[in-house]
Write a structure and sequence with these properties.
heterodimer; A: mainly alpha; flat; B: alpha+beta; 25% strand
Chain lengths: 70, 166
């Protein structure tokens, strides 16, 4: 498929289909990025060691932000 | 006894969450809760880390979520979330400040040039607009380049990229 055909195909897509394409591109941009891969490892290690936030805390944060008009 | 899963999020996800609007936070809470309710759902794609661990990558509407299931402790661990499409309102504001140069094509590598200084924060988003209304495409924050996905133009027009070097 040529680039022009790809573009024409995207043009004819629904919004949700375009979102899917955009998500795919976002994923492809990340998937081979060594810096991002290392960052994910860092985050996962931090979570393994207990640095993580559960639903209760996140909902509390949400309520707090909402109470302040955010 | 029914074993229920729960979700846990990374600090960076908390930071991302806190920066969202009320409606977006509510949306994300629903997404996270849905993952905890259906913890075995697979992503559309996979993401490997530098040490070889694997994450599920799944789109929920405009959110792209990276997560993995820690089954022994019944936790869905949400490691990253990104918004697939920038807000139109923000793009609209940015558009008025940018000098848009040249049409882009899918896969184009955009070098950091041809952009008037606008204090964008943290993302590079493709904007295309002319004719009726505004057309927006997703861009990806990257170092030294942006990978762009053109959206439909209502009546021809230009493509461009809002840029800030990472």
């Amino acid at each position: 498929m040529s680039l022009a055909e790809v573009k024409a195909s995207i043009t004819g897509m629904s919004v949700d289909e375009r979102l899917e394409v955009a998500a795919l591109i976002a994923h492809l941009n990340r998937t081979e990025d060594p810096g991002y891969q290392a960052e994910l490892d860092r985050r996962m290690s931090a979570m393994d060691s207990g640095r993580k936030t559960d639903a209760v805390a996140l909902e509390k944060m949400h309520d707090g932000l909402t109470a302040h008009g955010r | 006894m029914i074993r229920e899963h729960k979700f846990e999020v990374d600090d960076a996800v908390v930071e991302f969450f806190a920066a969202r609007t009320k409606r977006e936070r509510e949306d994300l809470l629903r997404v996270f809760a849905g993952l905890a309710t259906s913890p075995h759902q697979k992503g559309e794609w996979h993401q490997r880390t530098s040490s070889g661990r694997e994450l599920q990558v799944k789109r929920f509407g405009r959110w792209l979520v990276r997560y993995w299931l820690d089954e022994p402790v019944l936790e869905v661990r949400i490691v990253d979330v990104e918004k697939v499409v920038p807000r139109v309102a923000l793009i609209s504001k940015v558009l008025n400040r940018l000098r848009i140069d040249g049409a882009l094509q899918i896969g184009s590598e955009i070098l950091p040039a041809n952009l008037s200084g606008y204090p964008l924060r943290g993302w590079a988003g493709l904007v295309e607009a002319r004719g009726k209304g505004l057309a927006v495409a997703a861009g990806q924050k990257m170092r030294h380049r942006a990978f762009c996905c053109p959206w439909r133009l209502s009546r021809g027009g230009l493509g461009g990229v809002a840029w800030q070097e990472a």
